[in-house]
Protein: ABC transporter permease
Organism: Rhodophyticola porphyridii
Amino acid sequence: MDPITWTGSLGPLLNPLMLAAIAVFVLGFFAQLLLNFAGVQPGEVQINPDHTLSVARSPNDYALMAMKYSVLLFLACVAVFIVGGIVQPSLEQKGIIGAMGQRFLPVWIAMILIFAVSVTFKRRLGLYGKLFDSPIGMVGFFLVMFWMLTAIFAGLVATHGAIDVVSQMRNEVPGSFMPDPDEGEYLAYLLGGDNLGRDVFSRMVFGAREVLKIAPAATLFAFMVGITLGLPAGYFGGKLDTVLTFIANLVLAFPVILLFYLLVTPEIVASGIPTYMAAVLFLFPIIFFVILFNSRFFTQPFTRNIYIFLTVLIGGWLYLGLAWNSDPLGIISMPGNILIVFVSVVFVNSPTVFRIVRGIVLDIKTRDYVAAGQTRGEGPWYIMLWEILPNARGPLIVDFCLRIGYTTILLGTLGFFGLGVSPESPDWGSTINEGRRLLTIYPHPALPPAIALMTMVLGLNLLADGLREESLRD
């Protein structure tokens, strides 16, 4: 049976429109490039004699408009393919794009609900709501939420298991039908098969879960460590600042890839160094929240003791399970290879966060409201956590988004080198590494995870740009 085409029954109608949109975009791009070299500037706003405003458009503006509308036309065609994939009955009619659009239906529904609620109540949602006033921020948010929801609904989106092998489907092209229709729940490999006969589409989907299971949590832990150490270093200064800054610079001076190679060597793992590092680093979230609640409710001992008790109880339970794999309830645990990657990412990112927080504190601690808090007799930790830290949220939120992107790239790099992850892991880095061996002959196993990794990082960068733009207006 012939493979499914990319565009199905809608292809003859929409393919020319998509090609025309691409051609117009390319022409507009090169036209704008040449006009910029020629010194042609975009049109400026003019005040008319009747005190109305008008824009005198230049050729540069028309080139930009051509690029804008060509992108909108291309996206509209893709949307029609997705809708067609949802409503059309057979795989041949849906095409690969339509069939994938149908598989992502839970993601589309969740995205529509999130955007509808967010736009409706954006004026009540603070900085998050203001994000929807920024086109760049909305595009970044869309890309990030797409992959986050894909990770959440991976079991519904994927057509096959991440490690299910069908030997007859080895290196099959996208859209190839299964040799036996009764084998598996889905009739085809939408993005083809890899060199072992596994479904590339399903591995890309489950790869999102593997990446997003580590990157945000590891970045959050790194921020806990960096904030807990960066606040006192910047606020108190002196020898404490000197010692902590020296240690941070020492870690930053160490080659990252070499560090990961050392941590995954059998001798280092057998010595227990990754576990001891986890035992130290995983204490910082507990310390952070204990200090946070103690400083906030210092004058309310009963409330303070309840919060601290719950923090120690829940944090200690998570700490035993994650760091020592000794959860008394047997619920929380982290596999050894994931622990090594997690600890390594936290260890590498923490010094950079520390330096950012320290620099922000050095600037903010000279402000008048900090002096007012000191005059009122507020404690240093209260000032750091409840006066300085909230006013540093803009740069820290932006850096958090960017750092998740860096961590995602780092995890992809580690997977590419086979460090710390199991060989059958569907994470994007490992999948790219497996696909690149036959890249010149069969490019389809490596391209989908590479595009997924690129769009995820692009989305995080655009989201950070949107947050930075809106935080500057805040």
Summary: The two ends are 59 Å apart (CA to CA).
